[in-house]
Amino acid sequence: MIDEHLQTLEHAQRTAIDLAIQFGPKVMAALLILAAGYFVGRWTSRIADSTLAKIGLDETLRQLLTRIVRIFVLALFLIMALQNLGVELLPLLAGLGVAGAGIALAMQGVLGNLAAGLTIIFTRPFKVGEYISIVEEEGTVEEIKLFNTVLGHPDRSRIVIPNRKIVGEILHNYGTLRQLDVVVGVAYDTDIRMALDPIRDLLAAHPKVLAAPEPVIRVLTLADSSVQIAVRPWTTVADFNAASIDITQAVLETFRDRGIAIPFPQREVRLLGAA
Q: If you average pLDDT over residues 14-41, what whole number do you get?
């Protein structure tokens, strides 16, 4: 019994040695080829990235092209490694094609996101750093990936939108600037110029309000109880919320200091035919 076990171990040892002698050099060569492909891929992608940056290509598109270059180089070296091992590539490619068709059917949503991501990258309806509103969500574009787009919300949360939800939808791109929309009402007997002038002064002195484009300060509408004044200055996306709060408070304090009344809604009720 012990002799049989020893013979089995010796046979396994001889088989392992024979396989190592036969395939060991090829496996080592294949590993060296893959390692070389990894470093060559990194080197070529860096060269491609610097070249595309010099010609002023968009960062998102540049990242996509450099990744494609790197994957292409790695694929070439992988083919070389497989050929060195003696793998027949045509049957392998045929099998991969059949498997790929099945995977494509099972991953239609993922592939839809990929196609939409490529559409966004090449058509460039928005860029990183711009403020957009899409599919009832809004925020500053932080990342544009192949499968999703990441927005930074003013409340410091992050919104991840699948790219297929973006393509084909109505997109509102604010760019890097936003226009505030502050509305304040004054009494009908107020001298409008006495109300508009202090608003212009406080906007001109506010550090978050941009001088260009010029702020819009106009009478908006004649409401039931007041004259509505629209205060619409421009600010950067980052300062939008803070500037809106500051200007609303500043207008209120300025009107109080100057004795300009901000009326509340009123209704006059008359009783007719009272006994």
A: 70
For residues 134 and 78, state if they share a domain.
Answer: no
User: How many Cβ atoms from other residues are within 10 Å of residue 13's Cβ?
Assistant: 10
Phi, psi of 104, deg, nearest 5: -60, -40
Residue 147 and residue 212 share a domain:
no
Number of domains making up the chain = 3
Is residue 115, in this structure, part of any structural domain at all? no
Q: Answer with the residue of higher pLDDT: 79 or 8.
A: 79
Q: Please state, in angstroms and as integers, the Cα–Cα distance from residue 202 to each residue in 17, 206, 248, following that order.
A: 87, 6, 11
Which domain, by its residues, includes 244?
A: 177-257
- The verdict on 130 and 190 lying in the same domain is no
* pLDDT tens-digit map of 184-226: 888 888 888 888 888 888 888 888 888 888 888 888 888 888 8
Report percent pLDDT > 90 for the chain: 2
| Domain harbouring 231, CATH code | 3.30.70.100
Q: CA-based angle 247:183:209, to the nearest 5? A: 30
Contact (CB, 8 A) for 194 and 254? no
Q: Decide if 264 is inside a domain.
A: no
Average pLDDT, the chain: 78
Query: What does the DSSP 8-state code read for residue 88?
Result: -
Rounded CA-CA distance 148/164 in Å is: 8
- Could you tell me the CA-to-CA distances from 262 to 77, 170, 185, 198, 244 in Å, in that order? 75, 38, 6, 15, 19
Residue 236 lies in a domain: yes
Backbone angles phi, psi at 138, to 5 degrees: -150, 155
